[in-house]
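Structure ticket #2291
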Amino acid sequence: MNTRKEINDFRALYLFLTNNFLFSIKITFVFTFISIIYILLTDTYYESRITLYPAGELYESFNLFDQYEGVTDAFGLDLTPESNYYLPDIIVSNSLKRQIIEMQWNNKKYNKQTNLIDYWEINKPSYFDNIRKIFYSDFYNKDISDINNAIEIIDKLIDVDEKNSGLVEVSVLMQEPQMAADIANHISNYVITFVSNQQKTFATKNKTFIEERLNLAKNELSISEKELTFFRKNNQISLDTPDLQLERLQLLRDVEVNQEVFITLRQQFEIAKLEESKERLFINILDPAYISVKKAYPKSFLIVLISTFIGYIITSLCIILYKNIKNSINDI
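Resolution: structure written out below.
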């Protein structure tokens, strides 16, 4: 039985690998050693999580604006206070990421509050800066470039997962557990403040619009009332001709219509003032962020295990391939 046959036979293959086991282990150890070096050189990250649940607006079983829907539609105003904010979009927005980057965070690396650009040493001079300048455009700005680089980093460290139930889970990775928790809690506060401010701004705009329409309706009502009063003073009803009767009816109709519009807008204005001052619950924080001292990344045991296994497989295949090639050359 030649060697080639031995290697291609499963039983003989097992014996062959067993005979070369020590050599395979030595080569596999190189892969294991490389994985350990990778773990030592890679930054350790700690994870902190928050869970948010969009509660919407807490309205009664009916909408107070429904009874005035026809009038508001005629004015081109949508007063239906629906919440259309998609939480994952707010969380992954560059505005929030930039705020996180520029904020001062407590950390143990410098023992003082530091923004993430300084913490990650993005603005630290590099030996390759002079070479990179060759490729810079005339509009290059280092501060903007540092912010963009930091945004790319933080984008990889923040993960948003929306469940089928609507629950939004946000996880943050950072080199320090306290920073991870602080950033995660800041995200929840930012989302709540953002949605609340946007809804309050929406309610204020509605109130301002209605107030403007109310003032116009009040003036129109006052003018129509004065015109009717002036007409009555100069034309007694007992002396009305058909033309005067028609004009009297038109003036009365103008007053009634303007009065109805004024009353409707006045009611809406009072409701709008209540909506502006009302406290709403938009988002429930189910789980705030807590400090986790357990390493989230790199997963040392898993990396060493996989590297060792892959190293042994690659080593065994290389030995088999080498023996088969050698045997083929010898057969020739």
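Closing remark: The chain has twelve helices and five strands.
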